[in-house]
Specification:
Blueprint (H helix, E strand, L loop, with lengths): L1 H23 L1 H71 L1
Length: 97
């Protein structure tokens, strides 16, 4: 008996699609089916894409913070190298005289 009910439901669904094709035409019904399929795929795909974007934003923030720290370290090292260069010059001058 359940198989009969399932087949009746399938016939009703098919007759519904047939009525849509008769009323709107095949190209419009196919466009509707493609649109519905695209919508379902997009609805499934959206949370996954959102997660990728959130991870990328987090990575970018971490990289930016690291680059800021590296910039400060490079400035500190530059000052240290300049001071060392001055001391080397002074030692050379002291050794020459």
């Amino acid at each position: 008996m359940p198989a009969l009910l399932a087949s009746e439901a399938a016939v009703e669904t098919m007759s519904g699609w047939a009525q849509l094709v008769n009323v709107f035409g095949l190209p419009l019904v196919l466009l509707l089916v493609v649109g519905l399929a695209f919508w379902r795929v997009a609805k499934w795909f959206a949370p996954r894409v959102e997660e990728v974007f959130q991870r990328q934003i987090a990575f970018t923030e971490k990289a930016s913070a690291r680059l800021d720290r590296l910039g400060v370290e490079m400035a500190t090292n530059t000052v240290a190298v300049k001071d060392l260069s001055k001391e080397v010059r002074q030692l050379r001058e002291a050794l020459r005289s």
